[in-house]
Design brief:
395 residues, mainly alpha, two-stranded antiparallel ribbon, 8 strands, globular
């Protein structure tokens, strides 16, 4: 019915059951929180797409983070200009991710081996620097692209008559907010679709040709077969997967920053694919789960030190909680924030940092700490370097 052999149908059915039962399966190891499960699904899609290129053709790309960033920026701009519905955002993110991959692949695939890898890395770093500085009107530079109340959202306001009022809207699928469990299952459905497409590619004549390219591309060229259209198509499909993953990042957390285009993100997906097994169907997804699961578990060791509640933030004089931007929820608390900006930090000795949070040359935040005497207070912890032009004078 769906064009798969019996063994592939069993594999697909088992995969669907495992993904949908993810919260139950991950509960014994305390990784069943929606934010973590969303990461599993999103980076699983990213790794599947990368495996279509690297696993089938053997072309190692160090620039896939560029397509991830393009997808994120596209999704946020779709939210700002058209609608908070995630469907147009993920569709446009996938299309533009593939279009950008076509441009980079057309140039990079003129070479192979290490030269191809270096070219993709160079294009990714150029994209990162363009997003960070030159294209600031489009990307908002180092601050990142975020939603504002002044965004037009033409489809929502003019066609559907939505009025968000003074609230900053979040993405919603026909009234269902894409946070928590609904956000995970939205990503999970797309992960299942992407996995099905990858099975069809692996089992198709096109997939066999890509394996032949991996086996011996020169021999194919000697027989008169032009392999470049096949490799370029694989590169574009891989870029579309990366663009979709970037769009889903913006759906679950409507912001996009240039850091998503850094070489470290490209290296991360390479590591996921190699760890799980290149050229396999489930390997990249397992690799993504292992890396993101280990990342989440290791971060939980410091939750008692690094987590700061809204009440603790309010204890710092002069803090407006509207300035608090939520980055990650701690597993054991529903109102814990992880990233605070412009907070006058407290020191263990009772002194205050300079207004604006820099002392000296570093922006600081208040962290709960237990002193040797047994009392509990806040200490000053640096986390962000201030530019010389914005550094306040010492108090």
């Amino acid at each position: 019915m769906i064009g798969l052999k019996r063994s592939d149908l069993i594999l697909l059915a088992g995969f669907i059951a495992a993904v949908l039962a993810g919260p139950v399966i991950m509960a014994p190891i305390a990784l069943n929180y929606p934010d973590i499960l969303q990461k599993f699904a999103i980076f699983g899609i990213f790794a599947i797409g990368f495996n279509i290129l690297f696993g089938l053709t053997g072309y190692l790309s160090f620039g896939h983070a560029a397509f991830l960033g393009v997808g994120s920026y596209t999704a946020v701009w779709t939210f700002k200009l058209f609608s908070m519905n995630p469907l147009p955002a993920v569709v446009l993110a996938t299309i533009l991710g593939g279009a950008f991959a076509a441009l980079i692949g057309f140039v990079s695939l003129r070479r192979s081996g290490i030269y191809f890898s270096i070219l993709t890395l160079a294009f990714a770093q150029m994209s990162y620097n363009l997003a960070y500085s030159v294209l600031t009107p489009v990307t908002n530079g180092e601050t990142g692209l975020q939603l504002t109340q002044a965004d037009p959202r033409w489809l929502d306001t003019a066609v559907f008559g939505f009025d968000y009022g003074a609230e900053l809207p979040s993405s919603s699928l026909f009234g269902t907010t894409m946070t928590g469990c609904p956000g995970f299952y939205f990503c999970a459905v797309l992960l299942i679709i992407c996995f099905y497409i990858s099975i069809r590619i692996f089992r198709s004549p096109f997939g066999m040709m890509l394996r032949a390219v991996h086996s011996n591309q020169n021999r194919l060229n000697y027989t008169g077969i032009n392999t470049r259209p096949y490799t370029l198509t694989a590169f574009i499909i891989s870029g579309m997967y990366a663009g979709l993953a970037g769009g889903l990042m913006a759906v679950t957390d409507p912001l996009a920053g240039a850091e998503r285009m850094q070489w470290t993100a490209s290296g991360e997906v390479v590591l996921m694919t190699i760890l799980g097994g290149t050229g396999t169907l489930l390997g990249p997804i397992l690799g993504a789960g292992i890396i993101k699961g280990a990342e989440a578990k290791l971060s939980q060791f410091n939750d008692g030190i690094l987590a700061l509640s809204a009440e603790d933030a309010a204890a710092c004089h002069g803090v407006d909680l509207r300035l608090v931007r939520r980055r990650r929820l701690a597993p054991d608390a529903g109102r814990v924030v992880h990233d605070l900006r412009d907070i006058p930090a407290w020191r263990p000795d009772g002194g205050r940092a300079a207004t604006g949070g820099c002392d000296p040359g570093r922006q600081q935040i208040a962290r709960p700490v237990q002193f040797p005497s047994g009392g509990v207070g806040h200490r000053c912890q640096s986390f962000w370097k201030c530019k010389p032009s914005t550094r306040p004078s010492a108090a």
